[in-house]
User: Fold this.
Amino acid sequence: MAHANLMNNYFNPNSVYTEEDYRRRFRMRRYVFERLLYDVQQINPYFRQKRDRAGRPGFSPHQKVTVALQMVAYGSPADSINETHCLFESTCLYTLEQLCDTIVQVYKDECLYKPNQEDLNRLIRKAEDRGFPGMIRLLDCMHWDWKNYPTG
Assistant:
């Protein structure tokens, strides 16, 4: 039932929520989610739906990825997920661990590389435009005056 609700609300044609609602709630566009879902299913069998010993379908790939992303995007505690997605705390934590490991495995060459000088210059310019000079350095070494900084 949780899977059916998730699909009807977000993924089926004529879903309850619009693309804008989806982007606001999931912090990504639907096509990015679908690509991520496809990619992790290709690498990690955990994200493919299986049947339990009684022959009932287990948690869907959509449920697993949604739960993990919700925990990351909102900092949702694992024990609060049970109310909306019907996954127990231990399953949520395991799913999050599996998703993080799989994302690193899938995207490390494309996204997780040491930045070159051009990348650093672009990031520094973008950060300075937003009022965060020196963002590439450690945050505790930034040159910000904080009048109430705890000392002593």
The chain has a mean pLDDT of 82. The two ends are 56 Å apart (CA to CA). Residues 145 and 151 are 13 Å apart (CA to CA).
